[in-house]
Structure formats: C-alpha cells, structure tokens
Amino acid sequence: MRRRSSVRRPERVVVVALDGVYPFELGIPSRILGAADGRYEVLTCTVDGRPVRTNADFSVTVEHGPEALDSADTVIVTAIPPACIPEELPDEVTAALATIPERARVVSICTGAFVLASAGLLDGRRATTHWQVADRFRRLFPRVTLDPDVLFVEDGRFLTSAGAASGVDICLHLVRTDHGHELANTVARRCVVPPFRDGGQAQYIEQPVPDSGAASTAATRAWALERLGEPLTLTDLAAHARMSLRTFARRFHDEVGLSPGRWLIQQRVARARHLLESSDLSVDQIAGEVGFATGASLRQHLHAAIGVSPQAYRRTFQTAR
Asked: What is d(CA 146, CA 200) in angstroms, rounded to the nearest whole number?
C-alpha cells in the first residue's frame, strides 16, 4: 500500500503514446486521473517528440517528448494492436524507458505489458495482459509470471492490466491506493463507471450479458449489498433470486465472473475499507457492520486483499474530519 505523500504538488503522471496506439486506452489516464480534484498532473509524451499514428484513421500530436519521463512519479504505457508489437523494441523506445526514475511507479494498459517486458522491467515479476495474446506473451517472456485471468496485477512498483476497460480499473486503483476509497468513488461517479472491480476478478467472462429472457442475478446482488452485515448464504441468495442453488451459482458466475462467496467477500472488504476511512468504529464493530464474524476475520481478509492491517490502512487513509 502506498502512503500518500505530504508534498502538496500534484503527482506527475506521464502517459507514453507509441506508434499504433489505441485512442481509447490513450485517453483513459487523463480522463480518470484528471477527475481526481487536481491530485494528478497528466502529461502525454512520445518517445521521439513526433506525432504518432493511432489504430484509427487519425494521428495524434502531443506536447511532450521523452524528456517528460525524467520527472515522472508514475509512467503509464498504453496499448497498441498486436500486429504493431515488435519482437524487439526500437532503440528510441528502449532509450526513453531507460530514463524513467527508479522511484517511479510504472503501469501498463493491455498490450503495453509487452513493452515493459521487452525492456526487461517485468523479469521475475507477476503480470497480466489481454487474454487473447497470452500465449504469445508467455513464449516471448518466459521470465515473467503471466496471469491472463485477472483484470490487473500489482507487483511492487510495477502494475499491469488487461484489455481496454481494465485501464479504467487500474487508474481507479491508483486513486484508491494514493488517496483512499472516497476520492476513488467520487472519480468513478464523475466518469460514470463502476467504482470498484477487484484486480483478481476474472478478465474474460463467458456470458457477460444474460440471454434474452433469462433471469438475472442483478436484483439479488443489489439486495445483498443492502444486507452485508447479515450472515448471507448461497441458499439465501438463491432463494431471493428464485433459482435453484446450481442455477444461481452458474448464472452468477456467468454475469460477474466470480463465485457468489468470493463476490460477497470483495464487497465486505470494500465496505470495511470505506468505514475505516470515514468512521471511528473499532475493527470489531466494522467487522460486524460488514458481515465478518470477528475482527480477526476482517484482518485476515483485508490483509489478503491489500496486504495491510486495518490499523495501518486507517492511519494512511482515514478522512480528515
């Protein structure tokens, strides 16, 4: 977990636009981080200072060249089409990445992970990328432990994410890590995106939209969120949805990409983090509020999710009141 700096200047985030860049992914950092109440200064650069082609029918011209990387607090390498991914990085790309400060956080969106791996930055680390190019990634970079089944991976100062919309997830994760749940939720509301999808959520959901006429679990999920403090069971959820246990569990996983039990834990941890930030309730009281049997259970699940204790999380992120 990253402690917020006492320095008042905005964190400088430099987004690297490579030839063939996807316009959507290129715009994600500026849109999400730019909605965080001035906490971030987002700059876009190219590796040679010249315009770059996008994978659409236009090119982009940016204000900055590779010199912007020298002062970056966070660097984000965005996605390029698989056909544009070189077997070896061009010299100017390698040279530009070599100027990234050792203290800087380095993030990739989608196939941007290929660029980081080609530069040797992911050797010996866990990473992810778009599931469709996972086999190619493994073949090219055997020193990287690839997990293609998740939305994003954080390994030290290196963060990698899967395709397209997971770039939104990882940018919200940066806001949440740096400044807490409340600001991340505010940013999500402003951008009209889901406020939280856990990095470990399945990247590829077989049936993201139910078949026409099929019953959905959405109403039951909303019902459960209003009752997280209760000891909800799979039987309770299935009964509310008026489905058999087997049908409910299958349909839930088809729609969410998680089992009902894992989803409940994620929602309880998310609610606990919010209460740690915004209230003076004890750990045991928060555990009861969110449906964990004991404070010890909350400690265990929070540590599994973000690697810190409730007390450490509260010291870092509790909202000043």
From this structure: 13
**Residue 210 pLDDT greater than 90, yes or no:** no
Sequence ranges of the domains in the chain: 11-191, 209-321
CATH top-level class of 209-321: mainly alpha
CB-CB contact of 64 with 54 (8 Å): no
* E-assigned strand segments in 125-272: 126-127, 145-146, 152-155, 158-161
Alpha-carbon distances of 94 from 66, 88, 217, rounded to whole Å = 11, 9, 48
For 100-133, give one letter per residue: b (16+ CB within 10 A) or e: beeebbbbbbbbbbbbbbbbebbeebbbbbbeeb
Superfamily of 11-191 according to CATH: Class I glutamine amidotransferase (GATase) domain (3.40.50.880)
- Residue identified by tokens 């088809």 is 254
Are residues 248 and 238 in contact, defined by beta-carbon separation less than 8 angstroms?
yes
Per-residue pLDDT of 117-151, as tens digits, reads 999 999 999 999 999 999 999 999 999 999 988 88
Neighbouring-strand partners of residue 150 = 202
Which secondary-structure segment (H or E) carries 107? strand 105-108
Q: What is the pLDDT of residues 266-295, one digit of tens each?
A: 899 989 988 998 899 999 999 999 999 999
* 106 or 206, higher pLDDT: 106
Specify the residue for token string 């265990």: 300
DSSP assignment letter at 301: H
Domains 11-191 and 209-321 share a fold: no
* DSSP class of 83: G
How is 236-297 classified by DSSP, letter by letter? Answer: HHHHHHT--HHHHHHHHHHHHSS-HHHHHHHHHHHHHHHHHHH----HHHHHHHHT-SSHHH
CB 16 within 8 A of CB 26: no
Hey, what are 277's tokens? 């930030």
- Do residues 125 and 96 make contact, with C-beta atoms less than 8 angstroms apart? no
